[in-house]
Amino acid sequence: MTLLPLRLAGLAVVAMGLAVGPVLGEPLRLVSWNAESLAKVADRASTMEARVNSAALHLQAQRPDILFLQGVPDRATAQKLAVRMGNGFKVVVCSSLTRKESGEVAILSALESGLSWPDQWSPVAGDDGSVTAGGHAFATLRSGDLWLAVYSIEFPDSVAARTQREEAMRELLKHVAAVGEWRTNRPTAFLFGGTLNIDPEEAARTGETTLKLARDAGFTSGFLSLERTERLTLRSRAQYPASTADYLFADWGGFLAPAETFPGIISDHAMVVAVWDPEGTMPVVPVLATAVGTVPNLAANELLGVDLKWWVAGLGCFVALMFLVLLFRRPQPVFDPSRALPSSQGNNILFLSDSEKRAEAAQGGMSESERRKLRPHLLGWLKERFIGTLVSQRRELLDTQQQASEQAAELGRRVEKIQEQLFNRIQKAEQRVIELEKELALAKSENRELIQSNLLLAQRELDEARRKLEAAGR
Description:
44% of the residues lie in helices and 18% in strands.
């Protein structure tokens, strides 16, 4: 068997591998929910426990693989919710925002997790003078052979916050672009869900480009082409009618069906549930109406007729058929000029692919002049290969160094944030000690023992905070 059929066999195997595809993982159930009621009762323990239990029961019924959570008061409450949901659920990341909209944002999942961190939206002044509230929680999750970049987000509410929402979306898309440049564990798909607080069909929000920015960046809404009445996620409040405030978006794969909404029992926000398939394809969906009464063009859905995977499978079958045809075809002698050597008998060219002349050359050997002519070419080829390898390795080392520098800088920022929090705790504890000392000096003799015990506890808390600060400084 010659080399040509072997190469064609390799091509056939590669083509069939493309047709089958890598192990991309099973379809995932995505759930986005704003549990704003949990944040509102954070100071009432009994009510909080009851609401967490109720929320866990309703979330269990949806069987989520990834939960995009908003409106949770803190990480401890999110952890309680994850424990009650069971099935290995954990809090992958939870924010600690200084400017909140309805509460913290978090990501809960049982999937393998990688890097994660929360962040506040950059401050932008709204039409009413307010500063951007809310933020996002980011994490990388692994499903099958894929790394997914997942965001739980919340944008500011109110009509006056239009500029803030648009700038927050631009900031999110810049983050997506930066993560897409990673050299190691680069995510294949980007998913985000949360409370965007934008319904393009509300007359008061006509012309806002928040959703258009996401579509232009390649993201598709889980609602696909649902009518507005079937995708309302926020129930009516006082003078405000029901609207679409919560979304799920993906830039890769496909949603098996339009997202469903399930009314929240303990929240005015409905749960948005969609099944995302990493091996699926996104249909061409009409652009959502930008004003009340605008009718979308539904003819675009008819453009998608055939799944791309069937085209790849057909290509693999064609290559395999060509391989079988050429395998049983009698090979013909082929002269390869790239393997030619100068002959010692003049200017004639000796092709090494010619069996008779190759044997003749082997018997006679090469002359010294032929070796001298061939030596510079061989040395040049070896030098080119060696230098090319060095340049490639240097480029990889520089990329690795740059990535390590970025990770070190991010780690430094997080350590500084932790140190700042510890400094605040120390200042509060020192202030408390001073207040207790003043109370002790002014208290009557019967209260001195109680105040002294409180002073001792405060001093212990101060010592513990200082030890943690020293450990973080190391």
